# Entry
Amino acid sequence: MVDQVLQALAEPRRREILKLIRLQEMSAGEIASHFDVTRPAISQHLGVLSSAGLVTIRRQGTSRFYRIRPEGLADVRQFIEGFWDDRLELLVQEAEAEERRIKEMTSVQSDVVVREVRVAARPETIFSFLTDPAMMARW
# Structure
């Protein structure tokens, strides 16, 4: 399902459609009025979004109303967060190793930086890992 959602999101108009229906339900005609393409083209985009599980459709008579389905993004979010979690773990390892090297050289007690992940390193060390390209490459 991740591949199908990513393919659906790859098209800029589909992302714009999702933004439009993020807060309110809209008919296909209302959605189409925001774009410079034909209504059938918008209907195709809505079909792709629906197949990917990103929108819900409510039928009322002959009209169809579309609303974003945020839970359709859950698998993609988990997939992407997995990369971030891995990188944060590498940041922790590298920052703490750097801190140990600095402590061995200076015997100075360091502060601990805490933000979602506890890292036993001085703020300067963390800052360098977040801003210095050479240090960033290590995590």
